[in-house]
Amino acid sequence: MVEVPPPPATASWRKSRVSGDPSGNCVEVTGTQGHVWVRDSKDPLGPALGLTREGWSAFLVGVQRDELDRSGVPV
């Protein structure tokens, strides 16, 4: 596991362009050259998951390949 620093206080968080959930249930992301952070949009002062750029890329590949599911067990 790689330790990732907290996101910058001046971070500009953004939601997905395809997020159309009227209740606001979505995630927001922000990043720097070396790290990406993900947080719950309903709890902007809550915790943020920090990933290296490599970790973020691996996560996106897993999503695209449908390798993730809600039970936490690889498909």
Structure at a glance:
The protein is of the alpha+beta class and 75 residues long. The protein has one helix spanning 53-64, and strands spanning 14-15, 27-31, 35-40, 48-52. The chain has a domain at 29-75.
Give a verbal description of the structure:
The chain is of the alpha+beta class and 75 residues long. The protein has a domain at 29-75. Helix content is 16%, strand content 24%. The chain has one helix and four strands, in the order ββββα. A four-stranded antiparallel sheet has the order 1-2-3-4. The protein starts with 13 loop residues before the first strand and ends in an 11-residue tail after the last helix. The model has no long low-confidence stretch (mean pLDDT 85).
H/E element sequence: EEEEH
H/I helix tally: 1
Main pleated sheet: 4 strands, antiparallel
Strand order of the largest sheet: 1-2-3-4
Gyration radius over CA: 13 Å
Unreliable parts: none
How many E strands?
A: 4
Based on Cα principal axes, name the global outline. globular
Could you tell me the strand content as a percent range?
A: 15-25%
Q: What proportion of the residues is helical, as a percent range?
A: 10-25%
* Structural class computed from helices and strand pairing: alpha+beta
Oligomeric state as shown? single chain
The whole-number mean of residue pLDDT values reads 85
Distance between the termini: 23 Å
